[in-house]
Here is the input.
Amino acid sequence: MRVPVSWLKSHLELDEAVGAQELVDAFIRIGVEVDDVQPLGTVTGPLVIGRVAEIEVLTEFKKPIRYCRVEVGEEASEEQETDEEGGPTGIRTRGIICGASNFVEGDLVVVALPGAVLPGDFTITARKTYGRVSDGMICSARELGLGDDHGGIMVLPPATASPGDDAHEVLGLDDTVLELAPTPDRGYALSIRGLARELSNALDVPFGDPANVEIPEAEGDAWPVRIEDPLGCPRFVLRRVKGLDASAPTPWWMRRRLMLAGIRSISLAVDVTNYVMIELGHPLHAWDTASVKGDLVVRRAKAGEKLTTLDDVERELSQDDVVIADDTGAVSLAGTMGGAGTEIGTESTDVLLEAAHWDPASISRTARRHKLYSEAAKRFERFTDPQLCAAAVEFAARLLRQYGDGSIQPGRTDEGEVVPLAPITMPINLPDQVAGVRYQRGVTVRRLGQIGCKVTIGTGDDGTGLVTAVPPSWRGDLLQPADLVEEVLRLEGYDSIPSILPPAPAGRGLTEVQRRRRTVSRALAESGYVEVLPFPFISASVWDAFGLAEDDSRRNTVRVRNPLESEKDQLASTLLPGLLETLQRNTSRGFKDVALYHIGQVVLPKAKQRAVPVLGVDQRPTDEELAALQAALPNQPQHVAVVLTGQRARSGWWGPGEQANWADAVQAARTVAAAAGVELQVRAADLPPWHPGRCAQLRVGDWPVGHAGELHPKVVEALGLPKRTVAMELDLDAIPLPEGRPAPEVSAYPPVLLDVALVTDAGVPSAELAGALVEGGGELLEDVRLFDAYTGDQVGEGKRSLAYKLRFRAADRTLTVDEATTARDAAVAVAAERFGAALRA
Here is the structure.
């Protein structure tokens, strides 16, 4: 919200020494965010008021150009200017070239004379252009730094000033504009009235409330109104003004304030409603009375009803929208934007001024549904003062009477009733207890009184002092003792609350689960994988892309009631959808070699999921309530997953690269297992979305903990992934924590290296054959590694040869070749017994 400092100070009794910076400091101290401070005094040199005496349109150019003679208050000599009879006029005019066309002869404009310097270090000089000498510049509001309006020249009302007057004083260029961002719960702060009251409290200075308007008794209704939806509109007020001069200009002081607040001047009636909205914080709507047909009715929109709003957009209304209707149907989208059919026009002389109190939630839903984030909706959705309706329309009506010669009609419509805010009782020392500060006696009562509360003091049954505060009508955010405590602490200054760091208790560090997670993450990062945080919600369509059966347990997910994206309304039961979406996004933007990992929780509903109990906030939950809450939550185990595509080892001057394959996914699982202190067993498996012939089940002992391998080609095509993409996912919580982590023993004795090639049936998994070798080799066998696989005529049809490197070592002596050979033969014997393996000749 843009706020001129001069407008704020007009409602406060401030010392002249208090400037913009002091106000900024006060706002920050009480919790009102200041986004920007914009001083206006950036124009130097001669800047004067001018009157356009003559306009000559130059038609010989591609775009319309006007050559203007402008009176700037300078006396002319006999040689400079003469009248029709040849005598001196006594007034000098300057010739100025201008491309704008929104002014006419006789208008007052702002002229920058040669030597003036405008914002942006733009120096004005006399120069020849378009065949004429331009002796100055006629300025727009943006060129003077007064706003963003650059649609034309800034034209002042006739009686604002005289030609030659110093424009610095007329425009008030010594002012400063503050860009403020009050928190959403403080709707009253979106007004000069609310902000000035906040400054009054922060600076302890008197405040003049602009809403203190004498409201006369109503003599009948201004217009018949019927409220059919009291929940959507608790109060509706109308005041009628007749005989308005539709051509009356908006006074300069009002136009200037609106301009500095970022609002463009349109007409007197519209400007007055905007001015009252900024001044008091209560939006108004002006109706052209002649266009209203019959009684006004406040109701919900009907099914299929449509309305053309002031922005000339026809909108299909929802039955949740609150509207104002007459005999023709809906004519205004309540609290958001008026209808085009009842808009104030250039010839409107009979005006109905409306001020209503709308349900904030209804206005918020309507604004978002129709994407109409108007200034009125911004305030109504944050709560407006329901007691301000009559004062707002009275204030606006008097402005129209004063500046537009309108006649305020005796009647005033005031339908509906607003329930006062409930009183709040709390211990009088509660702010002291919350802040840990002993405030001076009377601080709580004084601060609550400053914000407008009616305060009474009493005593509780136990003798403790109590304070009861009735919130003011404009503070709909004050609902509980914590809200009152916040007000006391905020106005006393958060900086007065001491910051004491509690001592950290000894002996508490990371848990074993946390330490394992960090170790796994570090191991994957060191292996070349990049950690990502994918979107945690998924769409149901991903299961079809994965090729899952209808009864697959992974389809059983938890739905989100208010998803960030409507189509992604499920909590993930596996990490792969989010990881693969991130992989696809990176490859679609030119990355070919991508290796990603993520460690996070998945959500697995229980077979019989209980309803989540609703716990109160007035006291700490009991152990039974916490147990019931925990029992109602779905299982949320921690998983780790990786996806890999492109080259595992990149090519370069050292040689060609290596394409990633299913074995790299298995190796990633082994890396995780090694970091977790366990050993994985690998078994062939068939589980979507992996390729059935290139999928491995990962086990710890006899317990399956995950899968790894190459994704199925149909899955790759459905998700738009590169060919041969591989993936791995492990359930970290299913991996047992090792009870101890003994330091590895490094033998000082040399190893004995032996190779063995075994011929087996082609269907025998290499990992199971390697397991048999380990079992038969005993303690001396230190490592087994597959280095070759061969199929062909030499081994026979349906057979294959698997060659392994065996490393033997003894921990306490130098191993002899005979001992290593005996251990090798024992390993081969177990493989032969279990799988029928034979040494290849």
About this structure: The longest strand covers residues 47-58. The CA atoms of residues 648 and 660 lie 5 Å apart.
